[in-house]
Each structure stands twice: as structure tokens, then as C-alpha cells.
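We treat protein structure as text, and this decision shapes the records that our systems exchange. The remainder of this section carries one protein's record, kept here as part of the documentation:
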Amino acid sequence: MKGLKWLAATFLAAVLISGLAVVFKKGKTGALMMYFGTVLYCAVELAVGTMYLVRRGWVFLYVSEWGPDPQITLGKQDSNFQNITGWGPAQLVQ
């Protein structure tokens, strides 16, 4: 997710810089370019911001989809999931 945010920020900077350069030559075209670039940036930020995993509660993960050790796969996507606890005797009420 961090990669997409960096990509979006880099895209926004490139569009704004090139838009400013075009504004001085062709005013309306540069302004429209900056406007649509900003709108696209906001759409990407919204899409990236909605990609999250439930951090509280119980989640069932299929081994066929997440591999034999979901902790590794989830840890690569979000560092907060590197220390998840698997289901076992510790969760049973005794």
C-alpha cells in the first residue's frame, strides 16, 4: 500500500509541475491538466485508503489462498500483522 501512495504522490508532483509549465504557454490547457491530475490523485488516494484488513476480531484464512503460514503473507502486506496469533489451545475457554 505504501508503494501505491508513493506512486500517487509522484504522479501528482509530475502533473502539477508539468501543468505549471503548460499554464505559462497555454493557460486553460495547463489549468485543466492540473485539475484532472488532482482529481485523479484524489481518486487513487481514496482507493488506496480503503484497502485495509480487519485488525480486531477473528478472521478465518484459507490455507489454499494465503499459503501454509498466513503470518508471513500478511506481514509482507502490512507490518502490523507480523505478530498475529494462530488459533489453538490458548484461545479455548477452560
Notes: Residues 2-25 form the longest helix (24 residues). Residues 62 and 70 are 9 Å apart (CA to CA). Helices lie at 2-25, 27-49, 63-66, 70-77.
